[in-house]
Design goal:
By secondary structure, the chain is an all-alpha fold. The chain contains 20 helices and no strands. Helix 15 runs antiparallel to helix 16. About 4% of the residues have low confidence.
């Protein structure tokens, strides 16, 4: 990849959400914002090799995208005589900020996460408009067909336009009711960065994890007493702390038990632990923890151990037992079984995993977990078949490399 291609890729990672959010704020239309932003990046691909990368790529992209949006609206005005939209184009006075925080990307998230939209539409639209993920990447994240995901995003944007959903951060009294949907979106954005689903992307996308953390910090400042906001931030920080140790120099995924714990980010671990301790104190005072707080506590147990052999697996299983009562997702049950394997042995864990087959047979992590348990039980033929299926289902290059090596070790 040339230096210019790298610059375009980096600008897309860093600036996509800013450009789309700025255009949405000015023009009030997600379609216009997305199309104009896409055109700006296409123009960058064409012009930057000859003209050079501008000193401020984000400003260049925003200016170019704004011009494309104005051109489009002018064309529409000529056809439809939309005088109101024409006045909006030439009005350079920024609108008054609405809500407690003046951040365009946060406005965009709350717009995409409006309760008038179905939850699946909120997640998909935010990943596209804020995260900048492609439709194929989002489709893989949701385990649905690309065509279906494209239609879902199109319908969501049409709903926002027809229902006149406002582009703003909700008023303070409405925030608590709206924030859970936003947290779900940010968690999914973080997860896509933590281990990207696409085979043609970096296995770990720091741009997405950093953006999810930044926006979660903003919501934390807005709702400092919300335990789930604090829990999600702690979960992200404790996960992000391990990022540099998660992929080897050869591009292979490194599982938690094999990671160099000295390479973890000590500052992020300390901040995450502090947030978890705050929530544990609140729980002791009678405030029941939510899903993100329990997941953060599980990660705190893992990151407290100097060596994987020092992990308090009984505490991990106890926390998963608490989590299962709140979230009966088969994926949570799968993760609990992984912990059970360390506490009660692979045979007990395999029985729990096999009970999830009807729901998770097409999920690569299910097959990978089953393969590892079968390997530990000495059932090599069955383990190889499970590894084969996991490799077939995995989209991430680092995961595929790791699973392939584990399979070959069976020889």
């Amino acid at each position: 990849m040339s230096d210019v291609e790298e610059a375009v890729t980096r600008a897309h990672h860093d600036e996509w959400a800013r450009v789309v959010a700025a255009l949405t704020r000015r023009f009030g239309d997600l379609d216009i914002a997305e199309e104009a932003a896409a055109e700006a990046f296409t123009t960058a691909v064409e012009r930057w090799p000859a003209d050079g990368v501008p000193p401020k790529p984000g400003a260049w992209l925003t200016t170019t995208a704004t011009r494309r949006a104005i051109d489009r609206i002018r064309r529409e005005n000529k056809r439809d005589d939309k005088h109101k939209e024409a006045r909006m184009v030439y009005d350079n006075t920024p609108p008054e900020p609405l809500g407690a925080i003046d951040d365009d990307r946060l406005r965009l998230i709350f717009t995409c996460c409006h309760p008038a939209l179905a939850m699946e539409a909120r997640l998909a639209l935010t990943l596209r408009m804020v995260g900048g993920l492609t439709v194929p990447e989002i489709a893989r994240a949701f385990l649905v067909a690309e065509s279906a995901m494209g239609q879902r995003i199109t319908r969501a944007k049409a709903k926002i336009k027809s229902a006149r959903i406002p582009y703003r951060v909700p008023a303070e009294e409405d925030l608590a009711a709206r924030v859970s949907g936003v947290l779900a979106v940010l968690f999914l954005v973080f997860n896509e960065g933590y281990l990207a689903t696409g085979p043609d992307t970096d296995p770990v996308r720091h741009d997405l994890t950093a953006e999810a953390i930044r926006l979660t910090r903003l919501i934390r400042a807005l709702l400092p007493e919300d335990g789930e906001v604090a829990g999600l931030l702690a979960l992200m920080l404790l996960t992000e702390a391990r990022r540099t140790a998660r992929v080897s120099a050869s591009g292979e995924l490194v599982p938690l038990g094999e990671q160099d714990r000295g390479a973890w980010d000590a500052a992020l671990v300390a901040e995450g632990h502090r947030l978890v301790r705050e929530r544990l104190a609140a729980a002791a005072a009678g405030m029941a923890p939510g899903r993100y707080q329990i997941l953060a506590a599980i990660n705190a147990v893992h990151t407290s151990a100097r060596d994987v052999r020092d992990t308090d697996w009984s505490q991990v299983v106890a926390l998963y037992d608490q989590l299962v009562r709140l979230d009966r997702s088969p994926i949570i049950a799968l993760n609990r079984a992984i912990a059970v394997a360390e506490l009660d042995g692979p045979e007990v864990a395999l029985a729990a995993v096999d009970r999830l087959e009807d729901e998770l047979a097409g999920y690569h992590a299910y097959q990978a977990t089953r393969a590892d348990l079968l390997r530990r039980l000495g059932r090599s033929g069955e383990a190889r078949a499970a590894y084969d299926r996991a490799i077939e289902l995995a989209g991430n290059t680092a995961e595929t490399a790791y699973l392939t090596r584990r399979r070959e070790q069976l020889r």
